[in-house]
């Protein structure tokens, strides 16, 4: 009986506490306090919208290379004798990099030389006979032509032999090595790729859309951020624009010349560029927190024209400088932009403007 009385007393106390809590959460009319109805206006902050002009800024990314990257090949077919360098090696201008086996090539040169020497003797003999009126003029002309052909064949064979070796066109680095000793290669097969990186002429190639391409001019200034040097900003200049689009991606290539300021870079490093186009564009500058669900160059904001109702509006993002976002399209029919309270809004939500 005593245990029952204790349990009953605890139950009554709990019920009394719940009644007091419920009473505290209701007003005199029995409505719940502190949770406004969904139809109540949501307090927001707004700013007026005005277009402003600014230089177009284009952001793009790509990889570093040099403006003298070269694929080196042998001019003739043959067996690779030696490849004297490996990928990453630094080379000097004129340095011997690879050779073909010269056994067959030397034989061809020797045959051409012997043939030339024979035609020289034939020409001299026919010339003497012609002077003695034994050989005809036609015979003399034929041997003269044969001598000229043999001379050209010897020159061609000697020229080809000189291209049985590959020398570095500039001081730089070996980027790629495609073959090893003993392989049979044809004329024009890639053997090595080199660049002139030792000269510090670094280029960043980026891909842009056709619209962005049309706003960029040669000599436009740019800033470049290389991932390997996060605390360093490089100045750059637009030096080249492709005149055709990439067949696979449909994008256009822009090349920027970097001012490295003595910093050692490497081919293939990833970098981002911000190109300051000389073309002035008119757009809206808004706080970045006003844009919701941004994805690439698209997002949405909430705007109002009557200061009573919020409307969800898709927008096109032109650029972002870390503090503000420039909107190129989507705000043409809006009077005010909602910059605070957007998280609680949906399309056509009632609002009240707070100072």
Features:
single chain, alpha+beta, Elongation Factor Tu (Ef-tu), domain 3, OB fold (Dihydrolipoamide Acetyltransferase, E2P), 3 domains, 6-stranded antiparallel beta barrel, 4-stranded antiparallel β-sheet, 4 helices, 21 strands, 24% helix, elongated, disordered N terminus
Write the layout of secondary structure elements.
Layout lengths: L1 H23 L17 E7 L2 E16 L3 E4 L4 E6 L6 E2 L4 E5 L2 H29 L5 H26 L2 E3 L4 E6 L6 E2 L4 E6 L6 E7 L1 H6 L5 E6 L6 E9 L10 E8 L10 E18 L4 E4 L2 E7 L6 E10 L3 E6 L6 E5 L10 E3 L2
Helix pairs in contact: 2-3
Give the overall form: elongated
Number of helices: 4
Q: CATH architecture of the largest domain, please?
A: Beta Barrel
β-sheet strand percentage: 35-45%
Largest sheet: 6 strands, antiparallel, barrel
* Annotated CATH homologous superfamily of the largest domain: RNA polymerase II/Efflux pump adaptor protein, barrel-sandwich hybrid domain
The residue ranges in which pLDDT falls below 50 over 5 or more consecutive positions are 1-36
Question: What does this 3D model show about the protein?
Answer:
With 355 residues, the chain is an alpha+beta fold. The chain folds into three domains: 42-54 and 282-353, conserved putative lor/sdh protein from methanococcus maripaludis s2 fold; 60-67 and 196-280, Efflux pump adaptor protein, beta barrel domain (Elongation Factor Tu (Ef-tu), domain 3), CATH 2.40.30; 72-195, RNA polymerase II/Efflux pump adaptor protein, barrel-sandwich hybrid domain (OB fold (Dihydrolipoamide Acetyltransferase, E2P)), CATH 2.40.50. The protein is built from four helices and 21 strands. The chain has helices spanning 2-24, 103-131, 137-162, 210-215; strands spanning 42-48, 51-66, 70-73, 78-83, 90-91, 96-100, 165-167, 172-177, 184-185, 190-195, 202-208, 221-226, 233-241, 252-259, 270-287, 292-295, 298-304, 311-320, 324-329, 336-340, 351-353. The chain has a six-stranded antiparallel β-barrel. It has a four-stranded antiparallel sheet with strand order 3-10-8-5, with no helix packed on it. Helix 2 runs antiparallel to helix 3 (137-162). It is elongated and about 120 Å long.
């Amino acid at each position: 009986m005593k245990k029952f009385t204790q349990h009953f007393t605890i139950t009554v106390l709990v019920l009394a506490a719940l009644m007091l809590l419920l009473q505290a959460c209701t007003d005199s009319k029995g409505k719940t306090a502190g949770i406004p109805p969904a139809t109540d206006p949501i307090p927001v902050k707004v700013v007026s919208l005005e277009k402003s002009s600014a230089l177009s800024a284009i952001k793009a990314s790509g990889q570093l290379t040099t403006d003298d990257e070269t694929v080196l090949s042998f001019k003739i077919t043959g067996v690779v004798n030696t490849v004297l360098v490996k990928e990453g090696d630094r080379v000097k201008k004129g340095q011997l990099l690879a050779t073909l086996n010269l056994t067959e090539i030397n034989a061809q040169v020797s045959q051409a030389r012997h043939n030339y020497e024979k035609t020289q003797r034939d020409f001299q003999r026919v010339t003497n006979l012609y002077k003695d009126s034994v050989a005809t003029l036609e015979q003399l002309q034929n041997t003269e032509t044969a001598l000229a052909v043999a001379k050209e064949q010897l020159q061609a064979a000697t020229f080809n032999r000189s291209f049985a070796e590959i020398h570095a066109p500039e001081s730089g680095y070996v980027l790629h090595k495609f073959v090893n000793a003993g392989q049979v290669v044809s004329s024009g097969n890639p053997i090595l790729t080199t660049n002139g990186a030792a000269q510090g002429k670094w280029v960043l190639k980026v891909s842009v859309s056709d619209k962005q391409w049309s706003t960029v001019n040669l000599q436009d200034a740019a800033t470049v951020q290389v991932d390997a040097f996060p605390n360093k900003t490089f100045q750059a200049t637009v030096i080249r624009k492709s005149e055709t689009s990439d067949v696979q991606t449909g994008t256009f290539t822009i090349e920027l010349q970097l001012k490295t300021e003595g910093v050692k870079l490497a081919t293939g490093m990833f970098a981002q560029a911000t190109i300051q186009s000389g073309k002035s564009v008119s757009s809206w500058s808004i706080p970045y927190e006003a844009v919701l669900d941004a994805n690439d160059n698209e997002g949405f904001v909430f705007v109002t024209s009557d200061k009573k109702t919020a409307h969800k509006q898709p927008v096109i993002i032109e650029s972002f400088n870390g503090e503000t976002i420039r909107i190129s399209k989507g705000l043409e029919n809006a009077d005010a932009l909602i910059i605070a309270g957007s998280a609680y809004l949906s399309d056509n939500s009632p609002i009240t403007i707070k100072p």
